[in-house]
Automatic annotation (TrEMBL):
Keywords, ordered alphabetically: Heme, Hydrogen peroxide, Iron, Metal-binding, Oxidoreductase, Peroxidase
Residue span of region Disordered: 1-25
Keyword Metal-binding: yes
Pfam families xref list: Catalase, Catalase-rel
UniProt-recorded name of the protein: Catalase
CDD domains: catalase_clade_3 (cd08156)
Lineage, top ranks: Bacteria, Bacillati, Actinomycetota, Actinomycetes, Streptosporangiales
SMART domains for this protein: Catalase
Family according to the record: Belongs to the catalase family.
Catalysed reaction, written as an equation: 2 H2O2 = O2 + 2 H2O
Length: 482
């Protein structure tokens, strides 16, 4: 007998055989009493949880956040105090494809971080772009439906995508990013991450600031051309998972410089555009990026399913010193993520090791499927038997006044609440000649798919002409319309 451990069933009972089922005679029928075989087959049938409805394909790694600067005047959040090191898990993803889809598809990339802080989990669930396609959560499922598959033939459909985008002018900024070569990053290590939304920071004295997070890659930006991305999609669909895993395994730990933009609380009201509009960035000339530390990935997951597939990020995980903003998209997401985790993984998803906080949990929620935490009595609050008690004086969060009519309306209250100015600035002031040429070619290539109708092609040209006439003209030529 070797020193290898004895295989067992899931109850720890030694396995009768790794290879042979219990049969009546060597070639006879099998017996229901072979509980080892039954457990093996039944467990296999339950090996999958539903894939994420969006961001299904991804990979991730463990790491650490190190804060090098003193930002205590802006936030009392413990993870952002100078000298602090906080363990984290980061998951990257594409948005629209299913679990087996290609990593190099043109798509935004998810950049979701879970920080295991002293005050519980803090999640920043961002993308590799600082903006998004829409500004109202009402449109999110419609947007995603347009990106996924048709009801009839189960095919993705570029006509449907352009239909949604051209009828949603607020998408122009994000679609511009998406159609540049940044829509096909060379690897997850070679792209930035953004918190995208505006969040609230408050310090120990209760003073409030609006902030945005930027995670700037220390590896440098590297993108693929459309042709390179297509070749990799065919030849190595798991290219980005492989790249990250191999780099970390080889000791080449990728890192990002963590920057914030900080807006005084009072400046939001009469800023030149709505600072809570997710389709806009805050120009650096108004609010420069301030470096506060470094995020490094240094450990691969030991088990992909347990750590990556079952990771459950939620923008509603906010710790003392950090709060929400009136960004309507953020407000919608506060509901959506914990709701989908309860459905996808189960109501006790926070008890799984990858999601469990590093700090003590003294919650009055208990029981339910797959519970492993054993709370003790009392199981209710308030109680007079020394159960955990809240401390509102320390943890009630930030307070500010909001007022207004209950209405359904888009915000156009600021002088520059305009959908095209910022993508125009990107085209005019930021993109190089090569970037512009690739942008035009990528749009034309995408809108040349056989299903895109002649009428839709005209709408596509109009959409890009609204950003800049040269861009519209380039797309028109690329589509053979002029
Ligand atoms: P700046 O010139 O100060 O900033 C331009 C930004 O664009 C930098 O963050 C730069 O950082 C980034 N950038 C450079 N090349 C590209 C590219 N090919 N695709 C996307 N982003 C790129 O100007 P403003 O702050 O006034 O912004 C001008 C425009 O730049 C905005 O309208 C927006 O479209 C875009 N932008 C702005 C950001 C912001 O937070 N202000 C962030 C990202 C883009 P880097 O090269 O390191 O990515
Ligand atoms: C994943 C909803 C907007 C980034 C998801 C998931 C849902 C969802 C249901 C699947 C989560 C899971 O099963 O684990 C929404 C809704 C939005 C919205 C309703 C708008 C109202 C955004 C925006 C961003 C974003 C604006 C980025 C700024 C992500 C990321 C993931 C994700 C990164 C993957 C998280 C992971 O790696 O597990 N979203 N989303 N989403 N979303 Fe959103």
């Amino acid at each position: 007998m070797s020193n290898r451990p004895i295989s067992t069933d899931d109850a720890g009972i030694p396995a009768p055989s790794d290879e042979h089922s219990l049969s009546v005679g060597p070639n006879g029928p099998l017996l229901l009493q072979d509980h080892y075989l039954i457990q093996k087959m039944a467990h296999f049938n339950r090996e999958r949880v539903p894939e994420r409805v969006v961001h299904a394909k991804g990979g991730g790694a463990h790491g650490v956040l190190r804060i090098t600067e003193d930002v205590s005047q802006f936030t009392k959040a413990k993870l952002f105090q100078q000298g602090k090191e906080t363990p984290l898990f980061l998951r990257f993803s594409t948005v629209a494809g299913e679990l087996g889809s290609a990593d190099t598809a043109r798509d935004p990339r998810g950049f979701a971080i879970k920080f295991y802080t002293e005050d519980g989990n803090y999640d920043i669930v961002g993308n590799n772009t600082p903006i998004f396609f829409i500004r109202d959560p009402q449109k999110f499922s419609d947007f995603i439906h347009s990106q996924k598959r048709r009801a009839d033939n189960h095919l993705r459909d570029h006509n449907m995508q352009w239909d949604f985008w051209t009828l949603s002018p607020e998408s122009a900024h994000q679609v511009t990013f998406l159609m540049t070569d940044r829509g096909t990053p060379a690897s997850w290590r070679h792209m930035h991450g953004f918190g995208s939304h505006t969040f609230l920071w408050y310090n120990a004295a209760g003073e409030k600031y609006w902030i945005k997070y930027h995670f700037k890659t220390d590896q440098g930006i590297r993108n693929l051309t459309a042709d390179q991305a297509a070749d990799l999609a065919a030849g190595d669909p798991d290219h980005h998972i492989r790249d990250l895993y191999d780099a970390i395994k080889a000791g080449d730990h990728p890192s990002w410089t963590v920057n914030v933009q900080i807006m005084p609380f009072e400046a939001a009201a009469d800023y030149r555009f709505n600072p809570f509009d997710l389709t806009k960035v805050w120009p650096h000339s108004d609010y420069p990026e301030i470096p506060i530390g470094t995020l490094t990935l240094n450990r691969n997951p030991g088990n992909y399913f347990a750590e990556v597939e079952q990771a459950a990020f939620e923008p509603s995980n906010l710790v003392p010193g950090i709060d929400t903003s009136p960004d309507k998209m953020l407000q919608g997401r506060l509901f959506s993520y914990p709701d989908t985790h309860r459905y996808r993984i189960g109501p006790n998803y926070n008890q799984l090791p990858i999601n469990a906080p590093a700090s003590p949990v003294n919650s009055y929620n208990f029981d339910g499927p797959m519970t492993v935490r054993n709370p003790q009595d009392p199981v209710y609050a308030p109680n007079s038997v020394d159960g955990p008690v809240a401390d509102p004086a320390r943890y009630a969060g930030s307070e500010y006044e909001v007022a207004g009519e209950i209405i359904r309306s888009a915000s156009r209250l600021h002088a520059e609440d305009d959908d095209y100015a910022q993508p125009r600035a990107l085209w005019e002031n930021v993109l190089s000649g090569t970037d512009r040429a690739h942008l035009v070619a990528n749009i034309a290539g995408h809108a040349s798919a056989p299903e895109v109708t002649a009428d839709m092609k005209k709408r596509v040209v109009e959409y890009w002409s609204n950003i800049h006439k040269d861009l519209g003209q380039g797309v028109s030529q690329g589509l053979g319309l002029s």
